[in-house]
Amino acid sequence: MTSPVVVAVGAVIRRGDELLLVQRGHDPEVGRWSVPGGRVEPGESLRDAVQREVLEEVGLPCDVGELVGVVERRSDSFHFAIVDFACAVPSSREPVAGDDAAAVAWVPMAELGEWELVAGLGEFLAGHGLR
Fold this sequence. Notes:
The chain is of the alpha+beta class and about 130 residues long. It is about 15% helix and about 40% strand. It is built from two helices and seven strands. The protein has helices at about 45-60, 120-125, and strands at about 5-15, 20-25, 35, 35-40, 65-75, 80-90, 100-110. Strands 1, 2, 3, 4, 5, 6 and 7 form a seven-stranded mixed sheet that branches. The relative contact order is 0.28.
């Protein structure tokens, strides 16, 4: 049996030459690093979902900017269509892990290859000129 497609969002948040990453606290890919994001709730707009997810995962409000891209992730147990947006957070406040994020970190773009990223994130960033 195949899994239904779940619409999700992601926030590509940069601070200079750093990218904000969250360590996943739950499956899929628990322990790996990703951009903040998650499922879109029924009746919620994509932009509202991004703002809610960033607030829940890193404790910061965000301004949602342009669409970065859409990516599909699937396995035998899940199928996600993820819509990623460029976002900005207040520079005066530091992120704090919350909700299903085990940890948060500002990671220099040049060091992303040293981090255990979720499948396809490195390629997605490179394919959209962000790496």
